[in-house]
Amino acid sequence: PTHMVTMARLMLPLVLLGCVELVPVSAGHCYATMDCESCISDARGSPCGWCNGACQMASDSCSSTAVVDGGTCGGGAPVDLPGEPFFEDRTSLLSHNPTQKNYGVSITDIDGDGQ
Questions:
Q1: How many angstroms separate the CA atoms of 4 and 106, rounded?
Q2: Within 10 Å of residue 40's Cβ, how many Cβ atoms?
Q3: Which of 8, 50, 56, 79 is deepest in the core (most CB within 10 A)?
């Protein structure tokens, strides 16, 4: 915290003069991106690359060919999963579904002492 205050004091005059543009950048910004298009078009910092179904820093190693800025993600063929579908669409059973907010509290007695 002390070094942050010192850094802020040093940067304030430069920012006020317009000499420095502060742009927030997350060092791990690539790893939170969930789809290829968003990954390769992310311009918040170092370039990102799409590798084996996940976004990573373009400079990270990739066991296959990584898709990077200017590349094409491609849709790929959908995978046919084995077995019957687990969920069924039952929307038709909801004849009345008003919008509302519900709030609650959950309490757990972890050690089982009743308190």
A1: 38
A2: 23
A3: 50
pLDDT tens digits along 60-85: 888 878 888 777 887 655 667 788 88
Please say whether the beta carbons of 109 and 115 come within 8 A: yes
CB atoms within 10 A of CB 93: 7
Residue 101: predicted pLDDT = 77
Q: Which H or E run contains 38?
A: helix 36-41
C-alpha distances (whole Å) from 8 to each of 5, 24, 26, 55 are 5, 14, 18, 33
- What number of H helices and E strands is found in the chain? 2, 2
